[in-house]
Amino acid sequence: MEINFKKFFLIIILPFFINCFEYEETIHFKKGFAGYVNIEYAVPIHPKTGKTLVRFLPITSEEIENRINKGFFNKNLRIRNFKFQVLDPEPLSTWGPNIKPLFTKKAKVSYRLDFTDLGNLDGVLLGYLFVKKRGNSITVRREFKSVLKGIDPDSSPGEKKIRSETVRLLGDGYVLFKVEFPISSDCKSNKGEIGLGSLIYKLPLVDTIEKPGIKSWDYSIYNN
User: How many CB atoms lie within 10 A of CB 82?
Assistant: First the structure.
């Protein structure tokens, strides 16, 4: 029997990162739709080298700026308010029964990025970013791909069991997105909760496993 190594690796390793991965992103729009984004995350780190174990979430200011400015079109972005902290290991009891974590050390990172055009942060923020500005309004689409494809009918009972256990372990975990805007503005969104001058959307981690395809989130802000 042949097993796709990449798929096998993901469904084997992912459960051990569930309690390690936290990500929160807050986009703050000013009146003309310029603004800043605060990014904060906690990731597992190697117990000996102290390096991040999640490649797309670096933990030093130099690595972060190298990642967000890589590619042919250098964005020349600079982060500010950078903070770094090594967290105390969580008690094993928080991991649930029959789970022995591979990595118990975590680092917490936070920083701010200023922008005049949110669209310039495509490739910097999680997922894919599409932005349209028209007059006094802005429309934003975020797209997130699934970690795994749908269940293959030919999958072995072992693969199906591992996948099922991964979904169970993901539980209520989520990635948190916040959008802040002037309280005089109006907002519409196909997902999340809209409040006075704010929009909050939680992307359930389980959706990145259970539901194949792209998850899209659309919102529009209208300045009055």
Answer: 13
The full set of domain ranges for the chain reads 5-222
Are 151 and 183 spatial neighbours (Cβ–Cβ below 8 Å)?
A: no
How far, in Å, CA of 111 to CA of 61, rounded? Answer: 9
Q: How confident is the model at residue 65 (pLDDT cuts 50, 70, 90)?
A: very high
For the entire predicted model, the pTM comes to: 0.78
Helices (H), the chain: 5-13, 61-68, 157-170, 207-210
Residue with tokens 């008690």: 91
Q: Where are the alpha helices (DSSP H) in 131-216?
A: 157-170, 207-210
Helix (H) or strand (E) holding 137, with range, is strand 137-145
Residue 51 CB partners (closer than 8 Å, separation 6+):
45, 59
